[in-house]
Design goal:
The complex is a heterotrimer of chains A (about 300), B (about 210) and C (about 675).
Chain A lengths: L2 H4 L1 H25 L8 H10 L3 E4 L4 H18 L16 H22 L3 H32 L4 H6 L3 H6 L1 H18 L18 H4 L5 H26 L7 H25 L8 H20 L2
Helix pairs in contact in A: 2-11, 2-12, 3-11, 4-5, 4-11, 5-6, 6-9, 6-13, 9-11, 9-13, 11-12
Chain B lengths: L1 H18 L3 H21 L5 H29 L11 H21 L11 H18 L3 H21 L6 H29 L4 H4 L5
Helix pairs in contact in B: 1-2, 1-4, 1-5, 2-3, 2-6, 3-7, 4-5, 5-6, 6-7
Chain C lengths: L4 H21 L4 H29 L3 E6 L6 E6 L1 H24 L9 H19 L3 H19 L6 H32 L4 H5 L6 H19 L8 H7 L2 H25 L5 H24 L3 H29 L2 H36 L15 H14 L6 H18 L3 H33 L16 H19 L1 H7 L1 H8 L3 H41 L3 E4 L17 H11 L1 H4 L2 E5 L10 E5 L3 H19 L9 H20 L1
Classes of the chains: A mainly alpha (about 300), B mainly alpha (about 210), C mainly alpha (about 675).
Chain lengths: ~300, ~210, ~675
Amino acid sequence: MNMSIRIVQPILALILSPLLLGIINRTKAFFAGRKGQPLLQTYFDLWKLVHKGVVYSKTTGWVFRAGPIINLSAILLITLFIPLGHSKAVIFFDGDIFLVIYLFALIRFFTILAALDTGSSFEGMGASREAQFSALTEPALFLALAAIACGTGKLSLSEILVSVTSRFWLANISIILFVAATLIIVLLTENARIPVDDPNTHLELTMIHEVMVLDSSGPDFAFIVFASALKLWIFAALFAGVLIPDIGFGFWPNLAICVLAVLCVSVVVGIIESCIARLKLLFVPHFIFIATIFAVLAIVFVLRK
Amino acid sequence: MLIEFMMIFLTLVNLIILSTSRLSTCIKVIAFQGIILGILPVAEGHFDIQLVIFSIIAISVKAILFPSMLLRTLSQLNIHREKKPYVGYGMSLLIGLGAIVLSWWISKNLPLTVAPASSAVLPVSIFTSFVGLYLIITRKMALTQVIGYLIFENGIYMFGVILPQKQPLLVELAVLLDAFVAVFVMGITIFHISREFDHIETDQLSTLRS
Amino acid sequence: MFYCSIKIFLVGVFLIFFGGALSLLFWRKKKLSILAGTFGAVLGSILGLAPAIKVLLSGGKESLYLAWSIPFGAFFVEIDAISAFFLLCIFILSIITAIYGSRYLLEYKDKSLAKAIFFFNVLISSMAMVVVSANGMFFLICWEIMSIASFFLVTFEDEHKHVRQAGIVYLIATHIGTAFLLVMFILLGRESNSLDFDKFTAIKLLPASMASIIFILSLVGFGTKAGLVPFHIWLPEAHPAAPSHVSALMSGVMIKTGIYGIIRVLTFLPNPPLWWGWLLIIVGAVSGVIGVLFALAQHDIKRLLAYHSVENIGIITMGLGLGVVGINSGSQILAILGFGGAILHILNHALFKGLLFLGAGSVVTAAGTREIDELGGLGKNMFVTSVTFLIGAVAICGIPPLNGFISEFLIYTGSFRGLITKQLDLATVSIIIIGSLALIGGLALACFTKVYGIVFLGEPRSKHSVNVQESSKIMLVPMIILAALCVFIGLFSSFILKILNHCIAEIAGIGPDVVSSQILPLSNILTKVSFAAFCLFVAIAVLLFIRKKMLSAEKVSIAPTWDCGYAKPDARMQYTASSFAQPLVDSFKMILRTRKITEPIKDLFPVEGQFESSTPEVSRDYLFKPIFKGIYMLLDRLRWLQHGNIQLYILYIALTLIALIIWKIR
């Protein structure tokens, strides 16, 4: 199918990703016996933030002002590479996996720098923990993607997910399960969900991602919220793309199934957040190491054939 | 495919036992291993009556009898966690990962006269034996060492089961009886050691020799 | 004019040396000697660049052979595509650092600068001669001159004890390496009855064991210069001790001459067995991970950058190993990707490491201290330095759209292709590379956000970093040029890859046409990467515009940073370098063995507390110190020989002479 239809994928991502945060909050409220925020709350938040003024700390320089913009631009670029529904994404080429992962590194670099620019010990704390956790998740993510790339024999994200047909799925179920297990742990870590980080905590000493943006306000903060929603969408789309095979109905049904799956992933994240407590901070590296173990097991199983 | 899933779960529970310090978790893992190993002969699909009886005996001994004996000893001892082992839990997990890779490599290069049902069974059996040995070597609590011995024996047992030859029922029953007696004796010994010294840390027992 | 282009090259090298000699002549007048030296270096480098670029683009060989009276030695100079590439790196960085050094050296008010300038020019000319010499004896002579010149540069500030100690460590290490090289050349010479490189490549039927011994000797000898673990212990001592522009040159190109040596020896020995590739990859992976881990634990800015050089040499060696594995398994694309990635990373590392060291030099000059924990907030006063340093930091972490990403992209593509073939050896090697590169990338990101964030952002942490001044334009322009080159290579990488065509062909032993046909799809992919980078810039511009529109109607105000209600927030409450790195350092404490000395807080209202952390070099303490201790103990037994009595010494000599005569006559 040509480019003009494929552009639907990132457009859907842009429109629907704030909904994911609303679904997660609503699921948590359901488990807590509350009614909870409206599903579209994130959209209202973004609207409110965009119409507010901004307060900059006098310690910050141009890096702090540039951080949210680089964050959002890079995420928008990544969205163009992520396939939805087992069809090719808008841009794809051999090796786009590396570009995507290192664009995430670009985002991380400037988010950490923006946090350090405020000269506050809270942001420094969050930044150093963020640096540690992402340094540990990167090998796991790479190895998991290497396993599925080796399994399908392709080097491009789009082509890999296109090749996850039902035949491939049944023949390689163990690899799919291991890669999916790694991806869900990486999703929880990178998107600051329980059990790694609590997005609702108000204690600066225990925050990781929330504290890095403590001094952001107004349109900057709107960019950051939107970017984090898109990041959740991207990881959920990858997870759904690996876990659900291509049943072969055609472009639009597959797309619908995938979008439904992404919304279900956010429900699952909400359930996990309601049922598990946050891990002790010293145990989080072990948690991420479990992801690495799954990734290594995936590779071992892929190579034994 | 069922066998493959069972092997995956076996690998995962072995990794769990390498990284946990709770003694009750270790015992639950032994029970789980017993169930899997009991089902293993029949999982290949041959419903021989001898194999079925054998599976039932194996499950009842490995998954019910041994764990309950160990649980009884545990409740008598009133100890719940492993004391600081010689090799830390994170490092044990790393070594376990290396052992998985090593056992896959060994099984690829090991010349077998008969091909087992699934290519995943041989490496996992080698890995299980390794985990059992590792527990015996690096843990200080006598109870964990007994569990390690049981896991080691499970690994060897699995190695025997996958070779699709007819095992004389009597030989296997004799092995099981052997293990049963060992566990019984070890359980009594642990209880007595604990009563005498108020702990079951074996590294301190070596001070007895002077 | 082109037919004597190698003569132009030699004129250029001589001009560099002559400029240095002139500066020595004018040693009383500082400005004149600096001018002479810098002029000679820049002019000579430009002259030398021309033939190098020509050979690189056309792929031919230029040579000059003059016989010499030294046995087996000859003045045999040959520029082929490999040498041309290394000459490109050497001359570009020499021009930049010479211009920077001309202003930087003026900061040393009470010292005589002529020595530094003279040896700087000698270093450049000897490095250029090392990569073009085609005779073993000549190679070793130039190698030795290079080591000695850099030794004198490292010990420029020899009034400090730690500088002298660093110099001694460097001298010993480089000579141990040269000893291995000597044995290697003797073995090669024995096989081919001559020490000329073209005779080496013509050796047929080398027995496998001899080839392996030669390879191991070259790996140890050249690896000591390159900084492979565990022979890297001189790097973190020597690079911080030298003046910053010298550190930039040493880290940027001098250690690459070690890699040049390994590549050259690989061209002598065709048909490499698989285990050579394994060895290169494992040594590279270990160097990379250990380098970046130790860098993370440092809080001296130049020592940190020195450890990062170890890490990048590890990445380059992994690329070389991938290429060797590719040659061995007959997969041409793997060889091209591996060697191409390694070569491109050599160029990239020269650029961004040079940039980072020059930036560090500016910081040290402005603030007067190398301790990161005493800096902070320098970005406000030193805008250009901070921007160029940021570009260097982003590049070294391998982040798109800059050049570091492209070389890592090539190595990743190669290893993924190796993995997909599912052949067990290729796949295992690829997994090691992928895992190591991913881990190195994550840790490097943590390290450089630490450096940039703590040095240039936030508030000043001590009186050193208040009221710093931006460096002079002469020091800023070289950094801007390097930063621009980093961006340029990142954006126009497909074009750069095509330039490296002949060099890759030369190393891999494949015909250049085959290489260019294989490179074509890669270039297309890299063009798409550049297109994605362009989209990124467009997105940034659009978002900037949108934000400006959003804020034009609203209020923008300035306030202090959120301090959670503390009565007196202080700049010292900010995160320090050691606290930033502490989670990661603790995760890897088994390798790092950081020592922490603390005075605990005692009373309810504590007055003082102290904390100090240091990470000594593990290889030095656990590997080399015991070895040297053992050697000392052994040699102590022979101490009775040294009694100081001259007549007994003469007796020894006489006895030896008599014994030799008797032995010869029999």
